[in-house]
Design brief:
single chain; mainly alpha; 2 strands
Length: about 200
């Protein structure tokens, strides 16, 4: 550079350019742990997909991840109970990511849950986000003005972020259209009313 500090505007443009280049690659590139065919093996009784990096999910508790999705991070309020992006939060207005169709790999999910996505309603959930440049996209809170600062969501412990990603990658990502059986499994005793439209 020229020895002068980057202005906030320049840093945001640089970050936006980086996201514009990296995001499509993250959505289309085969993860480093992927094989040319569907990977063999299983993760806690679930098939390993091309998007899963089992080494990052080691020690995960899928049931706790389900609880984080519903009660801790309250992810379902934007992404919907089934990850279809149709939650009831007016901030998402149907714009939340359709997690069932996501092509993110394990690290991508961890990064976005931890740091959110600047410039969108997706909040960050890591309580260390934007405190130093090592955690989120090389950016700190000083890189944003008040209007552009990513919104803080409910704090989720790093271990629970891993639990959440394990839940998403075993129960939501790649699950296709929502079925009656999935709805009944999710809602249990109250399924007859909620799931009637899927019969």
């Amino acid at each position: 550079m020229n020895g002068y500090p980057m202005s906030l505007f320049s840093r945001i443009l640089t970050a936006a350019a980086a996201l514009a280049i990296v995001a499509p690659l993250a959505l289309t590139a085969m993860p480093s742990n992927a094989q040319s065919d569907t990977p063999a093996g299983d993760f806690m009784g679930y098939p390993v997909t091309e998007y899963m990096d089992v080494s990052l999910l080691e020690g995960a508790d899928i049931e706790k991840g389900h609880d984080v999705y519903n009660r801790v991070g309250i992810c379902l309020s934007c992404h919907g109970w089934n990850g279809d992006g149709m939650g009831k939060n007016p901030r998402s207005e149907g714009d939340a990511a359709k997690l069932r169709e996501s092509l993110l790999d394990t690290q991508g999910f961890i990064d976005i849950i931890s740091c959110g996505i600047p410039g969108t309603p997706m909040p960050y959930h890591n309580n260390q986000a934007y405190k130093d440049g090592d955690v989120c996209y090389g950016m700190t809170a000083a890189d944003f003005d008040a209007a552009d600062m990513p919104r803080k969501g409910k704090s989720i412990r790093p271990a629970d972020i891993i639990n959440l990603v394990a839940y998403l990658q075993t129960h939501v990502q790649g699950a296709g259209e929502t079925t009656l059986a999935q709805c009944q499994d999710y809602y249990g005793d109250s399924a007859s009313k909620v799931c009637a439209g899927l019969e």
